Amino acid sequence: MKWIIASDLHGSAHYCRQLLEAWKREEAPRMLFLGDLLYHGPRNDLPEGYAPKEVIALLQERQADIFCVRGNCEAEVDQMVLPFPVLADYCLLESAGHLIYATHGHHFNEDHLPPLHPGDVLLHGHTHIPRRTLRDGVYVLNPGSVSIPKAGSWHGYMTLEDGVFTWKTLSGDVRDTLRL
């Protein structure tokens, strides 16, 4: 199954529309969102098109196809207004025989790995910087940010299909790939 993976939308309806267009273009049945859907938090400026209520409405149409982990900006009130679960600290997936531990990144990240085996994947957002590295035999991957990219990176997402991670801009330009 193909997944679209995104993180750190921070309430931008402008970039949510672009992400939904990318999702349609990718023809991925499911989305994994790595947290920070609705709010920008005190460390970030408001993203372009900041409209959390509009983001909620935009995502309702695909609510059965969205899996989300809790970011550091999610709160219980978000679960009251979103029609899909957003408060799980992590989720586990499997692809091409590799365990994927998906989380936001504010607890587990490159500097603090969860208990994983060599060849497993830690997938997280939080830093707003697309990244791939190998740490103690564990792949540490980050799709970057949909709405507030940092360190000169792009507005983007990644896909996962048949053990291949692909980093893309919101317009679909490929920036990197990794085959597990």
UniProtKB/TrEMBL annotation:
EC number: 3.1.4.-
InterPro entries for this protein: Calcineurin-like_PHP_lpxH (IPR024654), Metallo-depent_PP-like (IPR029052), PdiEstase_YfcE_CS (IPR020935), Phosphodiesterase_MJ0936/Vps29 (IPR000979)
Residue ranges of domain Calcineurin-like phosphoesterase in the record: 1-161
Superkingdom of source: Bacteria
UniProtKB keywords: Hydrolase, Metal-binding
Membrane spanning residue stretches: none
GO molecular function, one term: hydrolase activity
PROSITE patterns tied to this protein: UPF0025
Pfam families: Metallophos_2
Gene3D superfamilies xref list: 3.60.21.10
Cofactors (names): a divalent metal cation
Family: Belongs to the metallophosphoesterase superfamily. YfcE family.
Protein name: Phosphoesterase
Organism: Faecousia intestinalis
